[in-house]
Amino acid sequence: MSIFAAVTFGAAVFLVIPLEASPVTNKKFSNQPNNLAPLTFRADGTFQVSIFEDLHFGENAWDQWGPQQDINSVKVINKILDKESPGLVVLNGDLITGENGFLENSTVYIDQIVGPLVARNLTWASTYGNHDYDYNISGDAILERERSWGNSRTSPMASGPDAGVSNYYLPVYDHGCVNEHTCHPYLILWFFDSKGGFKYQQKDASGNRVGQPNWVDAGVVDWFSRANRDLTKRYGKTIPSLAFVHIPSFASYALQEAGVDPNKQPGINDDLPLAPQAQGWCPDGRNDGTCTYGAQDTEFMQAISHTDGLMALFSGHDHGDTWCYKWDRLLPDMDVTPTNNISLCFGQHTGYGGYGNWERGARQVKVSKKGLEKFQATTWIRLESGIIVGKVSLNSTYGEDHYPDERLQMAACPTCDY
Fold it and tell me: Which domain of life is it from (predicted)?
């Protein structure tokens, strides 16, 4: 039996999501797709998310090294889920190394990724990253494969020619809620598609792949703002929220430039400088290698930093960064002044594919109903070795509180060198 056949069981329910004409529009999807029960808090009033970043399945698929890295990545997922019990798993971009994939099989790696989740009857939600978009793979194709599994909650709510696929939100209700129409949410989880990579099956006149914008589209930002206003109006209050996107915004870059203190923002800070949205693009939309940053993520930064109740945004992409930083001030080279003190966080590189020799792991985020009254969350990183590093409280004093410098506990990854 092949490694794929070992996890391909159950009835397939495929859903193809076609892109609609501009502008970005609201789609009529349930917040609980695939007829899943609503997400709910535990009986003890807590809710936990496990974030798997940069899995990079399918890398070097043509030689012995590549498939072995996928096996190693499955082991990481299993080891972490043996220690953690999340209410939701987030696959936060670069699920697949798309440029190494073939059109005929580029999405079958999804079956390997979700195998450990299906075996534990866990549910998940995804964002897509720059390596999930290439000549032989697309977000739409990954979504179709995802939705063949009944536990997937990835459910696009916005569409448009430049919107990408994974833009949606999921409410989390109180323990015991069985019908989302009769309950009110205590937490909202937002998911954004930062795109990037290359356009599916498109080449230019010279035979080169066509680059795709690597930022959250302005139309998606408009959808987010409208949807958030609607939720606030519907429930008559600000609902605490968390957000996920693969490529970090320029604000993370600016915070890193301001200085990451290992005792105040604990974690690895090895990708210096980090790579933000709109990197490599010009303000006029060209990506011909003549510009370093085009600022097309400004509207996204404006929205996330002015949304009441949005506590943190979690990103990946930069495998060598794992810190959280409170964005609470105007930063150099920026014109966006935050009003909600949002924390911008990186996860831990999970997959054995992709660059870097840091120990693999996954960021965990836990909230409680009591803590949400003060818009607080707790987060830590669970490493493949089983130890926990970087546990912090994202609260009103984060950025002032003193934490141990745990960078030396990030063990090397000897099998990653190739």
Answer: Eukaryota
